[in-house]
Structures
1.
Amino acid sequence: MKDIMDEANRCLNCKVKPCQKGCPLENDIPSFIKQVKENNLEEAFKILTQTTVLGAICGRICPHSKQCRGNCVRGIKSEPINIGKLESYVFDNAIKQNFKIETNDKLNGKKVAVVGGGPSGLTCAAFLSMNGAKVTIYEKQPKLGGIPMYGIPDFRLPREVIDETIKKILNLGIEAKCNQALGKDYELDELMEKYDVVYLSFGANVSSKMNIPGEELDGVYGGNELLETGKHPNYEGKSVAVIGGGNVAMDSARTIKRLGAEHVYVIYRRAREQMPAEDYEVEDAIKEGVQFLFQNNIVKALGKNKVEKIECIKTQLVKKEGEKRLVPVNIENSNYTLDMDYVVMAVGSKANKELVAKTGLETTDYGNIKVDERYMTSKDGVFAGGDLIGTKATVAWAARSGRNASEEIIKYLMEK
Ligand code: SF4
């Protein structure tokens, strides 16, 4: 508790609130920290639940130095406030003390189906339920939680934190139907008949391909699928290359190293400073024995049926007109090969094409579900959000999309 108070007391309670602007959910950070300073944790929780229901999760796994914390005024001359630690403390305490989330009956029991119980679906469901809707979440997995539950390893986010967060959200009166897959156990049309509104938030968790030779060989996996299913080969004494520089790459590399791989290489075509992953995660991975090959890229996987080697190339970073970031360009004749037992592709994610096609909804050129400015899809009363519509792939941005959609759904239902 003392360290929480010391941290809260360092906050300057800035009037312009740069930290709030840096937060995807625009949590009122100075106001909730002020309440923490005064040891009024119920009021701090009340302030935060105006914008988020995932504080215990986001407080632990958000890339804070690129969001709220990265904008903290204290950071100019010293250490910025550890906002995530304070946020998760407030939520952990609210769960323990069973603080209630405020509700009203504005929507008078209007019925909403939410498809997909990840950050976006849970947030949308919670905000609709807080406003009096009767919400049912359909989830294909045995448990709700989405990526935090099935994609982020336990060492980064303990399962009990997710379980408790979900329990608190369901306590708003939300029904959860798990092991229910869209297109298999039910169809979109059925939900449209039964409910006043349907919100689709089943994510975009199919690993993107690089379309390089050898990608179809055995032993080449998608990082999302590995983390989601937890079905790993035996890595004991093996060499594994993880391609990419974001969270999925970091989580895959660290998980595989913990599962006994002898060598784990993260191959990233840009430099360390450009990595989307948080710096402390890279540090932790290095301490755990993960090796980084910055400014290197894979060009092919080699082997008969199973991958045996990879061919890589060195890159240099150049400035290109119209590009914000430095662009990696292959250095001619710098190719080399490495013996490799497994390759994990963690270069991005996309929506499940077949599943999206089954909905019969219009899509974007990238295969995401197309929505208008109200988050409404091409079918009246069917809304969509989160990664499925191409939101930036972080938990907080997905949650923001769910909250924004809930606001639009409330307007729609009030006018109906
Ligand atoms: S910017 Fe930092 S010091 Fe200022 S209010 Fe936000 S957390 Fe507090």
Note: The domain at 208-348 is CATH 3.50.50.60 (FAD/NAD(P)-binding domain).
2.
Amino acid sequence: MLQLAILILAMTLIVGARYLAVSGLFAAITARARPGLHGSARSRRQQRAERRWSLIAAFIYGAPTASAIWRFHAGGTAIYTDLSAYPLWWLPASILLYLFLHDTWFYWTHRAMHHRRLFPVMHRVHHNSRPPTAWAAMSFHWTESLSGALLIPALVFLIPIHIAALGLVLAVMTLFGTTNHLGWEIFPARFVNGLFGRAVITASHHHRHHQNYACNFGLYFRFWDRLCKTDDGLAGDFGREEREAFDRAAARRAASGSGARPVHTPAAAPE
Ligand SMILES: [Zn+2]
Ligand SMILES: [Zn+2]
């Protein structure tokens, strides 16, 4: 029991450190690629709340993960380490199946959490991110974290998956959770408007959910949203208002002699 408690603590620290590293990296990329996009005092307050809720979520994600690892060491899960244990085609198939099942779980639980009775308790915390930032990747109320944290640790008891494939699924989960909340589109326009963006969810799709709560509920794929007619397409030039506000503030500072210059719309003149 003591060993399990130590494992839970270790997994909490690992999930928390992974969150801080990945979201911190993308927050730094955002600050470089879109200076001032999330620079207002209101956004900085929001980002502190996002980090607080995300670190609570790290504990809730860490505990079932630790229990699954505990059972894995005792040989009680469907995770395998010998590549020849299953045909090679199962490797990509299991990754796609895990992602599809996770997406399905997310879509339906997410839609349920938008019910007027569940929303204030479970999901309002996540929608307090307006607009979301890289730090919102795990910014969930603990009740929402519970629903999100249980699926993959449960699947590893049911559906065989190679340990490296499972690592890839978790990496995709982390990456999508972060990049979908950047508040700007990191993928090139030809990707987002092409075949990739028609099937796969990026920030342009999820940002629309944060703007207009009643659409775009998916996590990885647009499959369920399209099937259930909840797909409302992609957000346009989202983040434009924040960038323009930043430029106006920078222009005012430049006009008053503090030296800062607008970086997005250099033609904008101080009023
Ligand atoms: Zn979100
Ligand atoms: Zn939502």
Note: The longest helix spans residues 41-73.
